[in-house]
Amino acid sequence: MITARAAATFEPVGRSVAAARTFVRDTLQGWGLTDIVDDAVVLTSELVTNAVVHAGTTADVVCIRADTGVRVEVADRYPEREVPLQSNGGHHFGHPDREGGRGLLLCAALAARWGVEYTATHKHIWFQLDFPDRPAGTRAAGPALPSSALPIADARVRVGVVQVDSGGLISAWNDDAQELFGYQSEQVVGKPLTDLAAWPHTPGTSTGVAEALRLSRWEGSYGIRGADGRVSPVYASHLRIRDAEGEPSTVCLLVRDRERAVLQSPMRAASADTTDAAERGPATDAFEVFIGSPAPDDLDGLLQRTVERARDMLDGDAAYLLLATDDETELEVRASTGLPSARQRFARVPVEAGTGRYGSARMPAVHEDLSAVPGAVPLLVNTGMRSVVTVPLKVEGRLTGSLGVAAESPARYSNEEALRLQFAADRIALAVERARLTELERLRRGSLSFLVEASDLLAGTLDRDQTLALMAQMTVPTLASWCAVYTVADQASDPELSYVLHEDEDRIDGLKALLMKIDPPEQVPTGGARSWSGPYDAAHAAALRTSLRSLSLGDSARPSSGPGASLATASAVGGETVVLPLVARNRVIGMLILGKPTDEHFRQENLELAEDLSRRAALALDNARLYSERTAISQSLQRSLLPPEQPEVPGVEVEVIYRAAGEGNEVGGDFYDLFPIRDGAYGFAIGDVCGTGPEAAAVTGLARHALRLLAREGFGGPAVLERLNAAILDEGARSRFLTLLYGELWPQHDGSAVLKVVCAGHPLPLRLRQDGSIEAAAEPQPLLGVMEDLELYEQTVTLDPGDVLLCVTDGVTERREGTRMLGDDGLIDVLTTCTGLTAGAVAARVLRAVERFAAEPPSDDMAILAMRVPEPADS
Predict the structure, then answer these.
(1) Which residues of 528-559 are buried (b: 16+ CB within 10 A; e: fewer)?
(2) Are 232 and 251 in contact (CB under 8 A)?
(3) C-alpha distances in angstroms, 13 versus 20, 50, 58, 347?
(4) Which of 65, 579, 719, 869 is the most exposed place for a label (fewest CB within 10 A)?
(5) How far apart are CA 136 and CA 152, in angstroms?
(6) Which helix (H) or strand (E) holds 126?
(7) 67/4 Cα distance (integer angstroms)
(8) How many helices (DSSP H) and strands (DSSP E) are in the chain?
């Protein structure tokens, strides 16, 4: 019966042989089958060599554990290769020293059973190693140690037991897990483990939570996010099991990371495989074994593996690796183990921390007791570490990083350990630098793509509020956990908090309230990011006051909200906070604030990217400000050109619809007016100035004011238009052609209305009678602004009860879609359907017909003036 299975595929390259050996060794070690590991590794090495080196194909390796032994299968994709023939005299594999066939020779010598199977595309070679008969006894033991050398743990060691079903959901949660992480069983049962696991705890672990839960056995470090929101580093041991019904699940044993000795399996000895030893060279310690195995492809994985192997090599309690900046003045924490890495990651320390060789990262150093020289290694302050050995990573004489191993007991390390660690650092320095340069290239390409996209988004809007929102949304969570934007109206104004965003929407209100209570950062026009401790200090002070207040009130009188909100806000802003000035056109117009949660730091590359973004955002924000100011001025001037409130005309319904083309325009080239002239007489006008925009609006203002002034001076329609024509021509180069329909309206006592109209080059007004007939209500005459001497005349029209007079500008009749145009005939067709409608309904129906005529919005100004004499029944 098969009880466990593991499989992997290896590419046809030389290093795959060592990778296959590591895979088989780790798998069998994980299953606890140390007695047969060496034989399995030797056989796998030969068979995989045949596949990837001699056959030149990928190799599929499968390990199967059964009740009686382990079966290992190696398959290649070269089925036509010959297999040694058997004869009556036994197996004949050729000479042992020949290049091919040695794998089968070893299978015959070491395996209990073996064989070769063929398919159309694969050749499978398998061997089985039976479990040896072992008497009951000790599986692993260590020497007796003095109490001072024993691992340190709390007086009460808690081992959390968490069972996860095949779907990744938590099915069991014991009391120790509740004490460790603060969750009651009913709070977590049925939820995915991924909701709690901050995976991985230390960057670079290549195995994710889903993969680890599927492995038959797994050990390692990660983080569990507790009920208080903090991540607790734990050491975990996973075991895959199945119940009586065959349903698989995973049992996870969890202890605090500093108590890993409770669960951690003993380190295995180096394999005696002669081929592996030949590849590794004379070194046999744990770090050199790592160097000889395939390194992770990513930088974080390589650095994390390095610190873990360095710690194991020197039997330390913690290890860390820092990378130098380009100018070699600072070191940035990139990987650690045994330390609170979430707090330390991307923290920066100076290369030269003090005088002498022990204060410089450029030379190896051994500190026997850090308590005697506090602050000698800033990274280890308040970590409980007493002794440390550090060595530089150098490439061609240039400092590229620093590697350190620390222990909780003093005087653990000497120059001998420093030499061993330096030898290992020299072996890994070039690989680290190569991976770092690859990562930098990837980050720079990503940064360029990010900035191009950001520039496109910022250039796509001139709205101030939308620009502020885009600035925040582009930084959170890509560059920071939270963001705030302060704006400065002018040099004499204080910064104003304009926008706040957090990656957790539930914390936005608390963060905004906190920032509103504290003074904004000082305005500094110089570029670059600078630290700001204001939010951190204020949040922690508020959290402390809330906690003290809750303690003094006692449990019975504790406020319902409790200190949770204050603590959550303090945690949200507890990391590094930086201020980037927003400078546009040599003036500070605001500040961009970026922050990290508790004890987190920014990467230098991210800060440089944020600076580039802030420069683009500042210019976009200033453009939005200038556009808003210009639009406000333009709209204010345009509103002054619109007619005042429309008068009520006794006995006549009047409806006006006006639409100015162009974004932000309230007045264009089309205009209308309706005004009282004297008792019982009203003037009305509808016109169209050649062109649109501010130039046309200027002529609009001239025409409207001139019409009112001249009409109230007692001039008739032709005289009014002739004098207006002269005024337009006086404008010279600024003059515009003007089509104008001007009339005077006299409501009559019998319910009708008399109109005297002059149509100067304008679309003719249409009269809709009560019987549905339509006719032009005026004759065309020359437009204004072209000729000096005009001879205009007026025509009289009587509107009977129920009649409608419709006046429009050419924005209505010249509505187009492709080659189609609404035209005069189309307007007449629409008006034909308006019999019996009110003036407002007629104007609305015409507007709806214009809008529906084409899919695109209208591109020309448009005015509609409808007048109707109601029937007696209407009134």
Answers:
(1) ebeebebbbebbbebbeebeeebeeeeeeeee
(2) no
(3) 11, 12, 8, 39
(4) 719
(5) 31
(6) strand 123-130
(7) 10
(8) 21, 36
The HSE-up count of residue 515 (CA atoms within 13 Å, CB side) is 28
Residues 491, 874: Cα–Cα separation, whole Å: 63
State the sign of the Cα–Cα–Cα–Cα dihedral 98, 100, 105, 110. positive
Q: Are 550 and 561 in contact (CB under 8 A)?
A: no
How far is the C-alpha of 358 from the C-alpha of 687, rounded, in Å? Answer: 88
Crossing angle of helices 37-49 and 15-30, rounded to 10°:
150
Beta bridge pairs of residue 74: 61, 125
What tens digit of pLDDT does each residue of 150-204 get? 888 888 999 999 999 988 899 999 999 999 999 999 999 999 988 888 765 544 4
Q: Which two tokens stand for residue 227?
A: 């009920």
- Total Cβ atoms within 10 A of residue 850: 23
Strand order through the sheet with 681-689: 670-678, 681-689, 738-747, 753-760, 795-799
**pLDDT of amino acid 588:** 84
643 by DSSP, 3-state: which?
A: coil
Q: Evaluate whether 595 touches 507 at the Cβ level (below 8 Å).
A: no
Residue 717 near residue 754, CB atoms below 8 Å: no
Backbone angles phi, psi at 865, to 5 degrees: -125, 120
pLDDT tens digit sequence for 625-663: 888 887 777 777 667 767 778 889 999 999 999 887 766
Give me the DSSP letters along 284-333: -SHHHHHHHSPPPSSHHHHHHHHHHHHHHHTT-SEEEEEEE-TTSSEEEE
Residue type present at position 42? V
Using CA atoms, how far apart are residues 32 and 386, in angstroms rounded to an integer?
A: 35
Over residues 822-848, the mean pLDDT reads 93
Is residue 609 within 8 A of residue 550, CB to CB? The reply is: no
Radius of gyration for the chain, computed over Cα atoms and rounded to the nearest angstrom: 43
* Distance from C-alpha of 151 to C-alpha of 147, rounded to nearest angstrom: 9
Instruction: Give me the percent of the chain exceeding a pLDDT of 90.
Output: 23
Q: What is the DSSP string of 61-82?
A: EEEEEESSEEEEEEEES-TTS-
| pLDDT average, residue stretch 598-602 | 74
Given a cut of 50, is residue 288 above it in pLDDT? Answer: no
| Contact of 702 with 689, CB cutoff 8 Å | no
Torsion angles phi and psi, residue 240, rounded to 5? -85, 125
Strands (E), 731-847: 738-747, 753-760, 766-768, 774-776, 795-799, 804-808, 816-817, 820-821
Helix axes 823-832, 839-853, angle to 10 degrees: 140
Q: What is the pLDDT of residues 462-483, one digit of tens each?
A: 888 888 888 888 888 888 888 9
**CB–CB of 198/231 below 8 Å?**
yes
Number of Cβ within 10 Å of residue 668's Cβ equals 28
Q: Is 492 exposed, middle or buried (0-12, 13-18, 19+ CB in 10 A)?
A: exposed
Residue 297 token pair: 């492809």
Number of neighbours of residue 413 by Cβ within 10 angstroms: 23
φ/ψ of 334, rounded to 5, equals -120, -20
Which residue, chain included where needed, has tokens 């956990």? 481
Rounded to an integer, what distance in angstroms lies between the CA atom of residue 583 and that of residue 100? 71
Q: Among 168-177, 196-205, 540-549, 781-790, name the one with the lowest average pLDDT.
A: 196-205
Return the exposure string of 272-303: e unless at least 16 CB atoms fall within 10 Å of the residue's CB, then b. ebebbeeebeebebbbbbbbbbebbebbbbbb
Which pair of tokens denotes residue 655?
Answer: 């409806």
How do 90-91 and 820-821 pair as beta strands?
unpaired
Distance from C-alpha of 152 to C-alpha of 139, rounded to nearest angstrom: 24
